[in-house]
Amino acid sequence: MVRHLSAERVAAMARSGQALIIDVRESSEYASGHIPRAKHISLSQLTHRLKEVPKDKTVVVVCRSGSRSQRAAELLLEAGFRNVYNMSGGMQRWSGPTVTH
Among 53, 60, 62, 63, which one carries the catalytic annotation? Predict the structure, then answer.
């Protein structure tokens, strides 16, 4: 079962470096604004790039609204990751700083 965190809690974790944030949106969405230091792995690439995700770190997945990140969190759990969270409401709920590129 996927656990969820609020955008506010994820913002605190991002500031303190407590978690790896993975943005599973498409490249154009990520480029238009993402959480600073978030790793970009689109949902369609996730199963092929699992080796890039450390199993010993807390992982928070994020997308636009929370649906794709829910599926990404399920995939990570199925692959043996344990400290996985979905950011509730996705970037639509994010009020922290963003980076564009």
Answer: 63
